[in-house]
Every structure is written in C-alpha cells, then in structure tokens.
Amino acid sequence: MYVENASAPARKPVTVPSLHAMKAEGRKIVMLTAYDASFATQVEQAGVDIALVGDSLGMVVQGHRSTLPVTLDQMVYHTAAVARGLSTTLLVTDVPFLADRDAAYALEAGARLVGEAGAAMLKIEGASPHILEAIHALTERVIPVCAHLGLTPQSVHKFGGFKIQGREHDAAERVYNEALAVQDAGADLLVLEGVPAALGERITKALKIPVIGIGAGPQCDGQVLVIYDMLGITPGKRPKFSKDFLAGRQSVSEAIAAYAADVRSGAFPAAEHSFN
C-alpha cells in the first residue's frame, strides 16, 4: 500500500485508527489532492496527513467542465502514480461517476483502486440507498470508505451547477441526516463540501468519524483543498473557500507547508473562506 520514499519525514504511517485518534484528541487533519508522483512527493515531505486523488483531475488536469468524464481506468492510473510518491501519507482515491452504481460495481472498482493502484481508502459521493449499500459492502470487506456530502461534484447537473448546499432548513436537515446515514453504513471519514459553516460545525460535533471540510467552515476536524487551487494555478476564478498559499513564497514545498501549518493552527479557513 505504501512505497519507500527516502526523503519522507520521520513519522509513523497515517492510518484510519490514527485519524480517529486525531479527532478524539482535537488535532486538525490536513488533506490535499495530488494527481502524480511529483506532487505526491511534495505532499509527503510537507507531512500532509491524507493525499486525495480526486476526480477533480478531470477539471484541473484534463480541462473538462466537470468531473463526470473521468473513468475508472484513469483513476487507477493516477492513483498508482501518486502511490509511488508516498510513504506515510494515507492515500484516498475517488470512485468515479457511476462506478459505484451498485455494490457489485463498487467492489470491482475497489479491487482495482486498492489492489492494483495502491489506495488505502475509497471516496464515494452521496447517500442514496445504493450508495449506502455500496459503502456497507466495501467496509464489510475491510475496504475503508470516505463519504462525500454537501456539494457533490458528480451531482452537478441535478444541482444546476456548483452551488452551496444546505442553506435552507429542509436542505440542511437532509445533509445532516445523510451524514448520520453514511456513518451508520460504515464510512470511516466524511468530506463535507460547500455547506454553511454552522451546518459543518453541527455535523462535525454529531459524528464519531472525522469530518474534513472544503468550504464547510473552520470547525470541521480537518480541511482539504485542490492543490492547484491552493497554489493559485487553476485557470479562471479561484473558489471562495480556497486560498493562494504560493503567493509571497518561493516554492511549492513552502506553500504546502504553510497550508498544513495554517490548517493545524486553525488559521485556515478564515471567515472569508466560509459560507453563511
């Protein structure tokens, strides 16, 4: 699952139990995307806890307008590349669009992403009945799952764009109940994206599993950003919840280290990176 990296920091590998311990102890979890071995090495050297091979690569690497065109073969390829740059950072990878359409397909995707590519955990969007069934099937077979709720990019057409979720009372209750449901189905981690900070705080306090926010407020157990957004190199307008950590610094490694330090200290995200 991990490969040797001679320049990696001297620390024990990050594991699912250690993430749960971090939540219990109140230590912030640092998560960042990576799509190749070079960026993975930078993430590893900065001591980031979790590297996420997001299907966001469809937009920031491939130039698509959404994550929907990304295939399972492409996720296997990029996950394997990132795995070669890691030693102790936990590797999480996205299950791409419709590869989780039922438990059998999810298990097939899991076999490839974990067994072939080297992921330690799979990230699955949503909480519909078939997704809950897939989470249960995977975790029953000891494949850890990171759920993803709120603004789920694979639902872009249903949402009518990349829009903040959970602002109205009924919508907030739906996201809250979905969070409880994915935890009950066996998820070990939750990424909560694009929701009001108050809802992010409520869900974080209610769940036993760690909650990683991206545009979900500062009270989450940790934070994740797309590395290209964090470095200020994504074409077009940067998301409100992001910050250019490369500005005023001399290298990518300095920027990633600054991001990790600000997440752990609570300096990031600030009020301007959150939603009401």
TrEMBL record:
It comes from Dyella dinghuensis. It is found in: Cytoplasm. Keywords: Cytoplasm, Magnesium, Metal-binding, Methyltransferase, Pantothenate biosynthesis, Transferase. Its cofactor is Mg(2+). Belongs to the PanB family. NCBIfam families: panB, PRK00311.1. Catalyzes the reversible reaction in which hydroxymethyl group from 5,10-methylenetetrahydrofolate is transferred onto alpha-ketoisovalerate to form ketopantoate. This is 3-methyl-2-oxobutanoate hydroxymethyltransferase. 3-methyl-2-oxobutanoate binds at D55, S56, D94, K123.
